[in-house]
Amino acid sequence: MNNKGKVAIWAPLRYANYGDDMQAIAFALMIKGMGYDVKVFQLEESLAQAYGLESVRTIDELCRNVSLVVIAGGALLTPFRWYKRILNKAAREYEKDFKDLYQATLRYPNVKFCAISFGGDGKVKKPETWFSHWRIDFFKSPSFINGTVRLRGDVDMMRLFGKDVTYYPDMLFRACDYFKPKMLPPTDKYRVGFNFKRGKYLDERLIRDILEYAGRHDDMEFHFTTTHMQKVGLNYQYVPDRVVNNVFIDRYENPCQLLGVLASMDCFMTSMLHVGLTGLTAGTPFISYRGPGKTKSFLKSIGGDWAILPENITLEQLRTQFWNKRREDLYALYDTSAIERMKDESRKQYDFCRKIVEMFA
């Protein structure tokens, strides 16, 4: 038992998403190292046991007998139209989280809530159009104190709620400080990783060509990854219905396992910024396929215009333009000094967390 009291950590961990898990666990380990006990909201039990953390199931359990709740990153500013907040289950659940958090500020008026390394899409939007009144009320609450964001544009967004937040690069730039990658067995084959959303993010022809190539050739491995534990039943990310020779499905199990998959690739192709960014911190170049604007903006900020793919790129174009280069040579095409600056600056997310813990816990 530590003697400095206890700090609570909240994140939307019911979805067992690797990014949320990494952020919550990294902050928890750092705070434990400061001499505090830590309890984490809805952390999956196997992860709680692996990292020696207490997991609590309700917001009342989380807020009881603490003076600080650290909100570990997360897409707190993700915009949802009103109809999505009604019709989409995940959006409904997310807005319900903000109802619970706001009501907790009323039941526990002495508890401060501080969100660190959170964000949205970096754009300023009219809150009443995109957020529930619960989310707005929570952000405006005096219990919700100034934190940090991971996209510069979100600084202006939070001013609409009367908050003066600070921008630092994403805390996941320091993922390897807290999680040792569990590498895949070595191979002489060229390894390519994929993480695709279904729907408009997927080109069925390209997928078919990849699977056919894998079955007919023996010079490459293709790894399809997911970022949620299978037990939660989210299926918006593509994996093949069947595997053939040289095709692998690497489902998320724990942070070290997924980080090891990313670190074992020669190149990673994704429509999701966080997955690519995490791989980048382990030295794996990523290329953006049908990704959102924030992914393209990030790549441009590190000299990665070359890594933004045309929507209808073919397998042959991928092989000749990217998959014939060593990972070190691809990585060197970025502005590596910009990446190193971001890695260094992202330490300030952790420094900020330390300061807030020392002030309020």
Can you walk me through this structure?
The chain is an alpha/beta fold. It has helices at residues 18-33, 45-50, 59-63, 82-87, 89-107, 127-130, 133-140, 153-159, 175-178, 204-216, 255-263, 273-281, 293-301, 315-321, 327-331, 336-345, 347-360, and strands at residues 6-10, 37-41, 54-56, 68-74, 112-118, 144-145, 148-149, 166-167, 190-195, 220-225, 247-250, 267-270, 286-288. It has a six-stranded parallel beta sheet with strand order 3-2-1-4-5-6. Strands 11-10-9-12-13 form a five-stranded parallel beta sheet. Helix 5 packs parallel to helix 7 (133-140). The mean pLDDT is 95.
Task: State the gist of this model.
With 361 residues, the protein is of the alpha/beta class. The protein is built from 17 helices and 13 strands.
